[in-house]
Design a protein that fits this description.
Blueprint lengths: L2 H15 L2 H30 L7 E7 L5 E15 H8 L9 E8 L3 H4 L3 E5 L3 E5 L4 E6 L4 E11 L2 E2 L6 H46 L5 H32 L2 E9 L2 E8 L3 E5 L6 H17 L2 E2 L4 E2 L2 H32 L4 H13 L4 H24 L14 H26 L2 H9 L4 H30 L4 H4 L26 H10 L4 H36 L1 H4 L1
Antiparallel strand pairs: 1-2, 1-5, 2-3, 3-4, 6-7, 6-11, 7-8, 7-9, 9-10, 12-13
Helix pairs in contact: 2-16, 5-6, 8-11, 8-13, 9-11, 10-11, 11-13, 12-13, 13-16, 15-16
């Protein structure tokens, strides 16, 4: 070996031993991970966010296999390329020998109540003409999905409406009125009637309780009957108002000319079933941007429709945030008390070491096991016994002996408590012994030292444990399927009826909503963009919750940095 080779080898050895290669390897690994994470988030955001942008509506004339010409009207959704053999097997059509692959367009033709399907595949080589008719309307309905067609006429109580000017302007005016009436009807049904039903149910349970206690005297029953009569009067007034609104909302109808199987057809729709209508081919970029934010707003504040494939996801957002907040309130005190005992009070020995090992192992238990535990212990055992003691009047219908948001929060609290315990113990370990001794030397008791010195200094570590607990709990689905989450919850866990927070109610969750829409939906193609949009929103909710706790932790860390030094 030459002297130059030995020098090069020695320089390489020194460079390798310096640790610089590991720095570059770690930096590269972190960079690749960040690129993958942001790339995935970008893909989800693009696929989900693009769903709310108003798309152009195309009128496509294409040649069918038998040589006849047909047409379809709808939105371009996607492009797919399949092999010639697969195309011939699926359609039975023989293609030219020089053609290998077939490019197909997926078109959302809507009008599912007429054609039976929302989407249609059209091969690109069959397309003869594409136009963008200016007067075509995209109509979002309360059921049966979207309708594409041209507005032809309006009628009021069966009498045709003669619009003095633009028929579309008259349609928008009447649609706005119908939407206001529908909102008023929904408010009466969910709030006013819901409040009356809630009070009547309380009175029924009160009467049942008197019967069980053998205290159903005529005086007591008379008082309950008077209260029920009062509620029935209120209900009658609301019913009359509701009947009047329902009569008004059915007044107007609109006729649209649609394309069904290549043929023109007139369809009449009551305006009461129309959620919104736009002419995307006439909209400017600014108008489309405005419509985009309107669609996004309704997605976040409306209730779901059409087996969760249409409408919004507000109940799922509300349920996710409320469940995580309840879990945080439950897990933080329990985890902190357990960590304080293990570090500050317990005699260190084999038993404590075994407890720490058990706590660490609990963090690795599959989440579905916690769900089974929550169902058996919290729901059936604890909730069933509470029903026997305090809610016997409601039986056999369970009150707390059934899955609900409280049991879901407790189950996730048990699942995430090891993270809080370990993080809090690490924070308590880093506090110098001299601070404890100084506080005791100044006359403070051990509890006062713990409450006023040790825990405030360890609070950043406690917040770190809470952050990790929130990050895990917010995305969990498997245990929630057993202890409280449902496909569609009729009522939110919080409303205007006393006691305002109803912990026994079932709830919706963004994670389960994604699973349900993505894998249980009867209309997969319609649901796919909603899966992306809901997934991205779940990530944003987790980031928002974590950022709130991170900001709190950083403020606490700055406050007690001087004491640590």
């Amino acid at each position: 070996m030459s002297i130059i080779d030995r020098k090069d080898q020695s320089a390489f050895s020194l460079w390798w031993k310096s640790g610089n290669p590991m720095i570059w390897i770690n930096a590269g690994a972190v960079s690749i991970s960040l690129i993958m994470v942001f790339g995935l988030l970008g893909l989800i955001a693009a696929r989900g966010g693009g769903h709310f942008w108003p798309k152009e509506i195309l009128s496509i004339e294409y040649k069918q296999a038998d040589g006849s010409v047909s047409s379809s009207v709808g939105e371009w959704i996607d492009t797919d390329v399949i092999s010639k053999i697969r195309y011939e097997e699926s359609t039975g059509e023989i293609l030219p020998e020089n053609m290998r692959d077939v490019e197909r367009w997926m078109i959302k033709v809507g009008n599912r109540d007429q054609s039976g399907a929302d989407f249609q595949w059209i091969s690109k080589f069959q397309i003869q003409k594409i136009t963008r008719p200016e007067q075509v309307v995209a109509v979002e309905r309360t059921e049966w999905g979207t309708l594409f067609g041209e507005l032809k006429s309006l009628s009021e109580k069966g009498v045709p409406v003669k619009a003095d000017g633009d028929l579309w302007a008259e349609f928008e005016l009447r649609l706005d009125r119908t939407i206001e009436l529908r909102d008023a009807i929904r408010s009466l049904e969910k709030k006013e009637i819901g409040r009356v039903n809630y009070q009547l149910e309380k009175l029924r349970l009160e009467r049942r309780g008197l019967e069980l206690d053998k205290n159903d005297t005529p005086e007591n029953l008379k008082e309950i009957a008077l209260k029920e009569a009062e509620q029935q009067k209120i209900y009658k007034v609301i019913q009359d108002k509701l009947a009047s609104l329902n009569h008004q909302i059915e007044r107007d109808k609109a006729s649209f000319e649609i394309v069904n199987a290549g043929q023109l057809k007139i369809v009449e729709l009551p305006l009461s079933v129309i959620v919104g209508a736009i002419k995307p081919n006439l909209m400017s970029s600014t108008e489309k941007l405005g419509e985009y934010f309107v669609n996004l707003y309704h997605f976040m504040v409306d209730d779901p429709r059409e087996a969760n494939t249409e409408g919004g996801i507000f109940p799922a957002i509300f349920g996710t945030i409320m469940m995580v907040l309840l879990m945080t309130v439950m897990v933080t005190p329990f985890g902190v008390i357990a960590a304080v005992y293990l570090r500050e009070y317990a005699t260190q020995g084999p038993m404590i070491r075994m407890i720490r090992i058990a706590v660490n192992n609990l963090a690795g238990v599959p989440s579905i096991v916690y769900g089974v535990f929550g169902l058996g212990f919290f729901v059936y055992f604890l909730g069933g016994n509470i029903d026997d003691l305090f809610f016997s009047a409601a039986k056999p219908a369970p009150t707390l002996g059934t899955p609900g948001i409280m049991w879901a929060a407790l189950t996730l609290a048990i699942m995430t408590v090891p993270v809080v315990i370990v993080s809090t113990e690490e924070g308590l370990t880093r506090i110098p012994r001299s601070i404890r001794e100084g506080s005791l030397a100044l006359g403070a008791t051990r509890f006062e030292t713990l409450r006023k010195v040790i825990l405030p200094m360890a609070s950043p570590s406690i917040m770190t444990g809470v952050i990790l607990a929130i990050a895990r709990a917010a995305g969990e689905v498997a245990p929630l399927m057993l202890v409280g989450v449902v496909k569609l919850a009729p009522d939110l866990p919080m409303d205007g009826n006393f006691p305002f927070v109803h912990l026994e109610r079932k709830f919706m969750h963004l994670g389960f909503h994604i699973y349900d829409v993505g894998f249980q939906s009867p209309n997969v193609e319609v649901a796919r963009p909603l899966v992306y949009a809901t997934s991205f929103l779940l990530v944003l909710v987790i980031i928002f919750l974590n950022l709130a706790v991170i900001l709190m932790r950083n403020r606490l860390r700055e406050r007690y940095r001087a004491m640590e030094n």
